[in-house]
Specification:
mainly alpha, about 0% strand, BP-dependent_transpt_permease
């Protein structure tokens, strides 16, 4: 009878889980390689990213006719090495995205913590700001701010920092309200713990796991936002390379020199993909509620 049941209703295999683990491991390895390439870009680049050579402009990558010696991925419209600019662009894009994500984490985490611990009008005000942030398309807000205040790196980091703070605020507020109902927190208050001590030593340690996961997931969104702003000419300004600005400057040469756009576009795709997979992996290994599934 058991064999007949197994024949009609076969047991679910773990092949899907194994395939997912393989994808996650490959994504983690790729993320490490991208991070190493960004950190050690000055040592890996064969040429200066700003060095121009008009006699070698628009040369194709290795393996094509008219290839310029030493330029593995070809040259751009000013004769600059595409590989060198892509590595430096990856470095700058990652640095801006990481700085913006950290700023958003601090801002959103602080506001969410205040909203969760201080009920009443304080919580209503924070949640009203969260609703406004969600309702208004942030790309339009970022374009307006950069058009008015300029496209310096400081302003760009501030814009990227306020891009996703509402997600942190909602997560922290919800977790704080859940933790506030736990017996250990009531016991700490009964023992005489003040609000600041309670927040630092009892609430914050329980928020690390969801915040780390949200940080990795938000990082890919900030990478796309920075690339979009640079593509539109309001992000990183020439001649400093970023992945988005390289795509924006090379779009006019797509019919004749597609390698100028394909290299940074592929890096953006790989970067966002690996960060998203890394976020899923962290969620699977840090969320206690998912371990028994």
């Amino acid at each position: 009878m058991a064999n007949l049941t197994d024949a009609i209703l076969p047991r679910p295999s773990n092949r899907t889980g194994n395939d997912r683990n393989i994808i996650q491991k490959a994504a983690i390895l790729l993320a490490v390689l991208l991070a190493v390439a960004a950190i050690f870009a000055p040592l890996l680049t064969p040429f200066d990213s700003l060095e121009q050579s008009l006699l070698s402009r628009l040369r194709p990558p290795l393996g094509f006719e008219r290839h310029a010696p030493g330029h593995l991925l070809g040259t751009d419209e000013l004769g600059r090495d595409v590989l060198s600019r892509a590595l430096y662009g990856l470095r700058l894009t990652l640095a801006l995205a990481f700085a913006g994500a950290v700023l958003g984490l601090l801002l959103g985490g602080l506001l969410g913590l205040v909203a969760g611990l201080r009920r009443g009008w304080v919580e209503d005000l924070v949640m009203a700001l969260v609703d406004m942030q969600i309702a208004i398309p942030f790309t339009l807000v970022a374009l307006l701010v950069l058009a008015v205040m300029g496209s310096s790196l400081t302003v760009l980091v501030l814009v990227l920092g306020i891009a996703g703070w509402e997600q942190y605020a909602r997560i922290v507020r919800g977790e704080v309200r859940r933790i506030a109902a736990q017996p250990f927190l009531e016991a700490a208050r009964t023992a005489g713990s003040g609000p600041l001590y309670t927040a630092c030593y009892h609430v914050l340690p329980n928020l690390i796991s969801p915040l780390v996961v949200q940080f990795t997931l938000a990082l890919s969104n900030i990478v796309i936002l920075e690339s979009t702003l640079s593509f539109l000419g309001l992000g990183v300004q020439p001649p400093q390379p970023s992945l988005g600005s390289m795509v924006g400057l090379g779009r006019d040469y797509m019919p004749t020199a597609p390698w100028i756009v394909l290299t940074p576009a592929l890096l953006i795709l790989l970067l966002t993909f690996t960060v998203q997979i890394l976020g899923d992996w962290l969620r699977d290994h840090t969320d206690v509620r998912l371990r028994d599934r």
